Amino acid sequence: MGAAMVGWAHLPFGRLDGMGLEDLITRAGREALQHAGIDGTVVDGVWLGNLNGGFTPDVFASSLALQCDDALRWKPATRLENACASGSAALYAACDAIEAGRARVALVIGAEKMTAVSGAETTRILGDCGYSGEAGHPPGGFPGIFASIAQDYFAAHGDHSATLARIAAKNHANGALNPWAHMRKDLGFEFCNTVSDRNPMIAAPLRKTDCSLVSDGAAAIILAADEAVADFPRAVRLRARVQVNDYLPMARRRVVDFEGPRRAWQQALLQAGCAVHDLSLAEVHDCFTIAELLTYEAMGLAPAGQGHRLLEDGTVLRSGRLPVNASGGLKAKGHPIGATGVSMHVVSAMQLMGEAGDLQVPGATLAGVFNMGGSAVANYVSILERAR
């Protein structure tokens, strides 16, 4: 028995001063129930993706979701945390319950309230997603970690600062069309490729435009067992889903090899019975632009060191053969940690149903989703297809 997405909701991402974590969770859950045309009586459980880590006092947040609908009272609710892949962790746990026969319909919510604390506190919280034994090495938290990865890539394949700028410019151009995006502004290649007061170097070689946004936001999904899909007007099936975890200490691996993402993509494509070039689009984890570049190669779109060619020949552009991050990605859409994985699946489902509005990739039939926790530690790849 498999599972399909039969309803969803996506709130705007950004600095949402009027909304706390509880508001984000309950609004997203309520809108997803409405989209699926059901109420809480038919839901068998709730799965919440949320990092928290000190962003809000609501550490024990799973039962906040019951306030979406009083009929959810007494239903089991569980919070999942797997760093920046917490949303996919929640989705996969709900799929597990459905495939085990313990649930027929599930509510999955991903949410994060990040902007209620200072920038320094945000850096500290996110830094705690790394290995405590390597704290401060390299310095600068995750920007420093991914800058180090970029340095290793440049040492092996030459300076690709312009390539990273092209990724940033592409995703900002896409994000300008996304009504849910945190930043809806086409910044252009020259701005992204130039260090300036407005685009300072954060951790060389990564500039501000190479880093994803600190955002509040939430998204939600109604999942149903295959046998229940006929009860709903729309359905997007998870044709394949794979989770691969690598060592947390970076000293035990060459992070620049992106071996965990590569293995996850290989296994998911094999499970789905397709090749990467069969995909109509992909939403991938561009927490930093170097992560998107490495993902091109991990997916099998290009050999090591050759990912830049996909930008130069237009393959990954909105008009290309395999658009990557047509939503704007984390770079422009925003990166509310717990919401990210759920959001990526929601925008992909919209594409496959032909309901993505200005973001629509024409004729989309098969989508790939890659959500990553930490420095290629928790790696989730889903292959999605329309089921009705």
Automatic annotation (TrEMBL):
Which residue intervals define the domain Thiolase N-terminal in the entry?
Answer: 12-225
Q: Which InterPro entries match?
A: Thiolase, Thiolase-like, Thiolase_C_2, Thiolase_N
Where does the record locate the signal sequence feature? none
The enzyme's first-digit EC class, named in words, is transferase
Which UniProt keyword terms apply here?
Acyltransferase, Transferase
The record's EC number reads: 2.3.1.9
- Protein origin, superkingdom: Bacteria
Q: Which residues form the Thiolase C-terminal domain?
A: 255-386
Instruction: Tell me the Pfam families matching this sequence.
Output: Thiolase_C_1 (PF22691), Thiolase_N (PF00108)
Q: Which GO terms describe its molecular function?
A: acetyl-CoA C-acetyltransferase activity
Which PANTHER family does this UniProt record tie to the protein?
ACETYL-COA C-ACETYLTRANSFERASE, NON-SPECIFIC LIPID-TRANSFER PROTEIN-LIKE 2
State what protein this is by name: Acetyl-CoA C-acetyltransferase
